[in-house]
Amino acid sequence: LSGQPSSYSTNYVNNAVQPARIAGANYNLGDNQVVWAAGWGAISSGGPSSEQLRHVQIWTVNQATCRSRYAAIGRSITDNMLCSGWLDVGGRDQCQGDSGGP
């Protein structure tokens, strides 16, 4: 993981709370690795944002598999995208409005 953010509020920084670091450009995450998605997105389609931060454990998906699945619905996946989910099982996903985040 690379560097410190250029600026951030220190109001909540302590031993238990630290600024998140974003992986550098050359960081590679392998297939089928555990990752976590988090956010305040809506828990139902068109619903209000969650009042609590929610999170879900999912797994990284092979890029070739991801490209194939998205090509079937007319979408493209580029090299700078990370695919994750619970393929062919369902039941775990990001909330509405949380996709696309780091």
Summarize the structure.
With 102 residues, the chain is mainly beta. Helices cover 9% and strands 15% of the residues.
Question: What's the topology here?
Answer:
Elements: E1 34-39, E2 54-60, H1 63-71, E3 84-85
Structure write-up:
With 102 residues, the chain is mainly beta. It has a domain of 52 residues. The protein is built from 1 helix and 3 strands, in the order ββαβ. The longest helix has 9 residues. The model has no long low-confidence stretch (mean pLDDT 83).
Count of helix runs: 1
| Radius of gyration, whole Å | 16 Å
Spell out the helices and strands N to C: EEHE
Low-pLDDT stretches? none
Strand content: 5-15%
InterPro entries: Peptidase_S1_PA, Peptidase_S1_PA_chymotrypsin, Serine_Proteases_S1, Trypsin_dom
Keywords: Hydrolase, Protease, Secreted, Serine protease
GO biological process, one term: proteolysis
GO cellular component, one term: extracellular space
